[in-house]
Target: Cobalt-precorrin-6A reductase
Amino acid sequence: MRVLILGGTTEGYALAEALARDSRFAATYSLAGRTKTPLLPGGATRIGGFGGAQGLIDWMRGEKIDAIVDATHPYAARISANAVVAANALDLPLLRLQRPAWVPAAGDDWHEAADANAAVTALGPEPRTVFLTIGRTEVAAFRAAPQHRYLIRSVDAPEKNGLPPRAEVILHRGPFGLDDELSLMRAHGIGVVVSKNAGGEAAHAKIRAARQLQIPVVMIARPPLPAAPECRDVEAALAWLQDEITSAHGREPSERGV
Ligand SMILES: NC(=O)c1ccc[n+]([C@@H]2O[C@H](COP(=O)([O-])OP(=O)(O)OC[C@H]3O[C@@H](n4cnc5c(N)ncnc54)[C@H](OP(=O)(O)O)[C@@H]3O)[C@@H](O)[C@H]2O)c1
Model:
């Protein structure tokens, strides 16, 4: 079975690794190309956009893809929407593999913001020391609030001219441990954390550290995505693919869009 994995997450990577070891599958792992030195799994990989939904449809048709697993980050809304359009157009099965969102626990002080601009507003007018952990692409929104001091953490450096004036950048891919997060936040005198609701373990320590230090978190909400069948972990995605193999054997090739 020929599978397209839209990747960029730990789960997408793990799924690609698992399929690379299973001769029943020929999977291609696709990345947008945002990270300079991406981690690439075994098996076929490709890097770069497809050219919108139509580009994705053309690529999938050319590669005779049988099924798509959208294992992109919950905030990668455009590619997830394109995956739904392409799956519908080609009448192919699509599964969205997405980690459950974090939920606030006792002691958490979360302030939900709809997007990065709303997060800027939520910081308020008074100068604060902000731990900005939202990746590098939306950092420029915080130029609108130059009164704050920012500690910005990302995998690759944000554009220099997109930074707010008082910003220190640290580059780190994670995962992050609780003790390290506590020391970092204490050392920088962090007064508020701005985060996306990534879910999963690798980035969760900053949330626990904020709880322990009684620091508020401005949590940028996940963007709405078009409806699609979903699962929450790699095991469930493997089971779904197994089912797809079984049911594809019961169908004529013309019904499989081949
Ligand atoms: N957004 C985040 O916070 C975040 C965090 C960690 C990792 N990531 C990963 O980074 C990638 C890009 O995120 P984004 O927020 O820029 O997504 P996006 O806004 O949904 O996508 C923008 C465009 O990038 C291309 N693209 C995105 N993911 C792709 C993939 N896996 N393979 C090929 N092309 C892809 C598509 O270009 P075309 O229209 O030309 O096909 C898409 O229209 C995703 O793979 C995501 O999993 C994102």
